[in-house]
């Protein structure tokens, strides 16, 4: 418990920065929707002129475009997924490798705590920090729909489902990044790994959508929780969601197992 509290305390500034930045980005994007509604007809014509492949690359389709408040919200959330994923990956990569990078592993391992306690405490601290940011994003999402919907009907059920997907995105990247940090011999650039995971998965998802390659969609949670599809169907695609759940469970379990046996470098 003491380690959990200590690790969570270390996230205080990070929670404030990430929570403020992501919620500001969400509200900032949604502020432009009333301006789009002023030129609604012109924007519809522009959207119709785009090929379906272009719309698919950005997660849009003809049935729910960004001239509809929920379509615009879905498009906004598809971009909000990226910093949410990067934050989770950043925590996952850094939280287990920090002692090795700062040469304090001797001090940590000399404490009367097992490696399993270290792993679980660090995981729970990172998850708690992510959940706090998640709550801030939820509040920002509802407020942005309330104030910037231009009087159009808001599908709060669909919005709730999209916001629920955030925790899966966070867990996917957190556990996968923790596994990577355990497997990699030496983490030289925490930001590099986090950015690579966050943007790499997004590009993979975008090309999968654009080229209609279902095989690519299987590897990235961005496609498992595609906002526009959730808003149109009013539900998750549970068979494909199970892939994300499986990756989360396997990544956490394998990372936990390998961490017990890792040769942690010390001074």
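^ Assign residues to that structure.
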């Amino acid at each position: 418990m003491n380690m959990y509290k200590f690790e969570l305390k270390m996230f205080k500034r990070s929670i404030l920065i990430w929570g403020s930045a992501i919620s500001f980005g969400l509200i900032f994007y949604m502020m432009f929707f009333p301006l789009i509604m002023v030129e609604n007809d012109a924007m519809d014509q522009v959207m119709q002129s785009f090929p379906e492949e272009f719309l698919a690359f950005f997660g849009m389709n003809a049935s729910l475009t960004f001239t509809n408040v929920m379509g615009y919200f879905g498009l906004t959330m598809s971009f909000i997924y990226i910093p949410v994923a990067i934050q989770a990956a950043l925590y996952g990569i850094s939280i287990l490798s920090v002692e090795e990078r700062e040469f304090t592993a001797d001090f940590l391992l000399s404490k009367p705590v097992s490696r399993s306690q270290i792993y679980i405490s660090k995981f729970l601290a990172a998850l708690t920090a992510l959940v706090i940011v998640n709550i801030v994003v939820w509040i920002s999402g509802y407020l942005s729909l309330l104030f910037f919907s231009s009087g159009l009907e808001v599908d709060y059920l669909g919005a709730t489902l999209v916001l629920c997907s955030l925790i899966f995105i966070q867990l996917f990247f957190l556990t996968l990044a923790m596994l990577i940090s355990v497997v990699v011999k030496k983490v030289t650039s925490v930001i590099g790994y986090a950015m690579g995971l966050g943007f790499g998965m997004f590009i993979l998802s975008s090309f999968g959508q654009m080229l209609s390659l279902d095989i690519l969609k299987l590897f990235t949670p961005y496609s498992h929780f595609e906002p526009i599809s959730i808003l149109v169907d009013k539900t998750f695609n549970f068979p494909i969601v199970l892939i994300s759940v499986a990756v989360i469970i396997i990544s956490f379990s394998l990372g936990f197992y390998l961490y017990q046996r890792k040769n942690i470098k010390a001074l």
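The mean pLDDT is 86.
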